[in-house]
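Ops channel
N.P.: pipeline sanity check, posting one input/output pair.
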């Protein structure tokens, strides 16, 4: 869905709301609907975990498995990360990548990227362009690859693998289920599906410095043979066309990006409903879009509500998570808990990607603010006209 189509869809829904007050207020649930929602979420997790340990765009199955294993274990458990975080080290302006490389971590693999993985998982607020460049240099140091855009795509792919693992851990923590074990490493190792970005793109990766330092890949540059070979839909990948859209920051590695979007479809909203702010997304949700956006905003600003705030800081006591989760269950709202856990899982994922690539656009937040103002105006006008 292109940027113009998104805006037209939003405008149409907002105009309808202004004139009629229409919006979907949620869908009633049932034990059967709740069970289906649970199954869909757990199936999405199963798919993600099997994907992240397999061969990717440019990265081998061995490299991806080690990175995934390190990320999966680091979330909420590395005492080195949390001691540094509690001490607010390093100070502002210091080289975080160098500092993070030299401190003691609770590593679980021998991956040459393991310190960078811990930085992505546990110290998002310290990510910067300097950290991004440190990862590019690490790839140059440990691989034979020296082409800049190939290294950039590798860095985005690695970060998206890490982010998906964090998203799974966050969902499981919020919903209150044990995180599944990672699948075993493939034997023998399988190489990445492509050798170079030019194998799947007929143009260079794009960087819009005003929007961040990370690359993105417009869908029109994807080679038709790559789309056909892996069953990708160009229309669904078109969220990579606009660097203002946060999901574009994962687009430089399209196969991994595709799995990222499939995870979003289940945990947040399906592609077809991204621009539909007045309806309940998908077929299996109970919360409406407004309720989901509130949960998303509360997670990303860490100002809620027990559940999201606690999941955002997994190193702290898990008791607030349990209490918030059980409060929803006691009210018979397990379906709503699944929807909120999905939001938390997806935003735990996407915030790592956008922080790593330096995403700076406020367009989406501004769109929501304008929508709220217009909807409120319509409500007041209707109240006066209709008495």
């Amino acid at each position: 869905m292109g940027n113009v189509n998104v805006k037209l869809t939003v405008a149409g829904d907002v105009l309808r709301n202004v004139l009629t007050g229409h919006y979907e207020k949620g869908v009633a649930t049932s034990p059967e609907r709740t069970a289906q929602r649970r199954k869909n979420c757990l199936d999405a997790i199963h798919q993600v975990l099997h994907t992240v340990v397999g061969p990717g765009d440019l990265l081998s199955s061995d490299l991806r498995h080690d990175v995934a294993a390190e990320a999966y274990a680091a979330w909420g458990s590395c005492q080195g990360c949390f001691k540094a975080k509690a001490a607010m080290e390093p100070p502002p302006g210091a080289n975080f990548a160098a500092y993070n490389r030299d401190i003691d971590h609770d590593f679980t693999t021998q991956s040459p990227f393991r310190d960078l993985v811990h930085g992505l998982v546990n110290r998002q607020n310290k990510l910067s362009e300097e950290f991004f460049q440190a990862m590019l240099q690490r790839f140059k140091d440990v691989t034979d690859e020296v082409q800049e855009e190939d290294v950039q795509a590798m860095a985005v792919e690695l970060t998206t693998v890490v982010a998906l693992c964090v998203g799974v851990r966050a969902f499981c923590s919020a919903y209150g289920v044990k995180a599944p074990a990672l699948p075993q490493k493939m034997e023998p190792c399988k190489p990445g599906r492509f050798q170079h970005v030019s194998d799947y793109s007929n143009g260079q990766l794009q960087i819009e410095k005003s929007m961040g330092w990370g690359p993105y890949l417009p869908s029109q540059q994807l080679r038709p043979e790559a789309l056909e070979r892996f069953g990708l839909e160009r229309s669904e990948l078109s969220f990579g066309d606009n660097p203002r859209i946060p999901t574009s920051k994962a687009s430089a590695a399209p196969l991994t990006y595709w799995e990222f979007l499939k995870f979003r479809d289940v945990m947040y909203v399906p592609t077809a409903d991204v621009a539909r702010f007045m309806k309940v997304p998908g077929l299996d949700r109970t919360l409406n879009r407004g309720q989901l956006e509130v949960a998303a905003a509360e997670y990303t600003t860490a100002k809620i509500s027990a559940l999201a705030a606690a999941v955002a800081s997994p190193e702290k006591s898990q008791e607030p998570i349990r209490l918030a989760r059980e409060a929803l269950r006691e009210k018979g709202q397990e379906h709503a808990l699944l929807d909120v856990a999905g939001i938390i899982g997806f935003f735990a994922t996407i915030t790592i990607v956008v922080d790593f690539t330096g995403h700076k656009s406020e367009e989406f937040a501004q769109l929501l603010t304008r929508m709220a103002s217009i909807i409120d105006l319509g409500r007041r006008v209707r109240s006066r006209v209709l008495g």
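N.P.: looks fine end to end. Residues 3-386 form one domain.
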